[in-house]
Specification:
Blueprint: H1 3-14, E1 31-35, E2 40-43, E3 46-49, E4 55-58, E5 61-64, E6 68-71, E7 74-77, E8 82-85, E9 88-91, E10 95-98, E11 101-104, E12 114-117, E13 120-123, E14 127-129, E15 134-136, E16 144-146, E17 149-151, E18 156-163, E19 166-173, E20 178-182, E21 185-188, E22 192-195, E23 198-201, E24 207-209, E25 212-214, E26 219-224, E27 228-233, E28 239-242, E29 245-248, E30 252-255, E31 258-261, E32 267-270, E33 273-276, E34 280-285, E35 288-293, E36 301-303, E37 306-308, E38 313-317, E39 323-327, E40 335-337, E41 340-342, E42 348-351, E43 354-357, E44 361-364, E45 367-370, E46 377-379, E47 383-385, E48 390-393, E49 404-407, E50 412-415, E51 418-421, E52 426-429, E53 432-435, E54 440-443, E55 446-449, E56 453-456, E57 459-462, E58 469-472, H2 482-494
Antiparallel strand pairs: 1-58, 2-3, 4-5, 6-7, 8-9, 10-11, 12-13, 14-15, 16-17, 18-19, 20-21, 22-23, 24-25, 26-27, 28-29, 30-31, 32-33, 34-35, 36-37, 38-39, 40-41, 42-43, 44-45, 46-47, 48-49, 50-51, 52-53, 54-55, 56-57
Amino acid sequence: MSLTLALLLSSLVVSEGFRYKGAGTVPQLVATAVYNSDSERCCKGTVHPGVNSIKECCGANVHDKSTQECCDGQVVEAKLGHLCCGKALYDTKTSICCRNKIVNVEKGLDFEHLSCCRGSAYDTTKQLCCPQATIDKKHEDHTHCCGNHTYNPKKSSCCSSNVNNVHVLTVLPFEGNKTTCCEGKLYDRGSEMCCLTKIVKYEGTGACCGDASYDTKSHLCCFAPSHGFKLVAKSGANDSCCLDKTYNTHTQACCNEKVIENANGRGQCCGTTLVDTEKQVCCLAAGSLKGVDKKTVNDSGCCGEVSLDFKKQVCCRNKDQKDVVVEKGTPKERMCCGVEAFDPSGGKLCCGGKKIDRITHYCCGSKEVAYANVDVACCGSELLFNPKKDACCSGDVLKGVKPRVFAAGAGSMCCGEAIFNGSSGEQCCDGKVYKMDPNEVCCRDKKYDQTKFVCCGRDVLPITANRSQCCFTTITDEGKDCKKKMLNYVLKRLE
């Protein structure tokens, strides 16, 4: 890899504020050494002499592919009929590997039917790997677990029940059409129902009310915290529940769990009372709901304790933080600007509670500024300054650096919270100002001579004896594929 590519890659990964589609910023590459890719090999931060096709990296080490194996970063001597399991080799004729653990197999067992269950070997023809343990099959057609039991789901069900606050699982064989579980028992879904934990006969439309079934055409299932579920007979099609009582939704209302007469059907609940929607609106005043008389028949909302017509009015707040009803000039004026109705889609801006012409002016904080005024400009979003005399550092929200104004000078530029002269050889390195010589460049917040050093991620390392390539601790270099592997590594981390 060339020095140019190495510098480009390093700067890509460690650049401040570089984002990717995952959360956070790009992870940093770390290098502790430099090397010559033509004569040396980098294995995760460790430099090894020699480059040939037989030797490859194994973690931070190198191994001879013709005589050795690399097992999870550990170099071990190769053996015929052996494979890696974690950091060691195992004999495939006498053992199997379960979660990087070598498990010896008893004589006589068929390797073709062996599998792993939580780090142990088991015979899949005679056993099942269940959540709690390896269980012997009670019958050869058993394919599922039920606690510490096995069963065939085509012939039995695994039912759960609560016995003395203990969760118990039981295998129950089918009994005709009884194939579904209900608290440790089987029932027939065609003629029975499971209500809570009780099996009951299927009634009418088939609904549960507590532990009983009922017909929704003739009864209501009501609930009250003090009584629980209660079946109440319907007196009409318009009945509904108000706690454990019924009421007619056309002639009555249920307000705050109380039934109130609503003979004309115009009433609407407002707290514990009923308001006539033709004459009043329900408003929140002094922390409680109450009915407020309408000023006009079209009023449908509130502005404090006063009724409001949303089509013609808006509710604004004055300097004393009191609600004020304001008349709209046009239907599009649906917002407030101070105590005036305001159309955000029109040719005006709201600036400091005052409407201004967006064509000729802009808003800096809460202050109006004319585009034609060349002596005033906005720094960030709220600071005014004279661009002929001063300069603005717009800040960095992500780093918590606020915008600020400073006296301008030739070449003056911002660097974090500092000011530097870009025309006098100074340069900003990640928020720090340095006086730079011709060969010096930035490596994050450090400066270095690129003819003598190389920037490796977050560190500056010396170049020695033609060694100018970074040996990163998180990347294995396989010789001439270095460029591809490093780029693939970065791209994978960016996914």
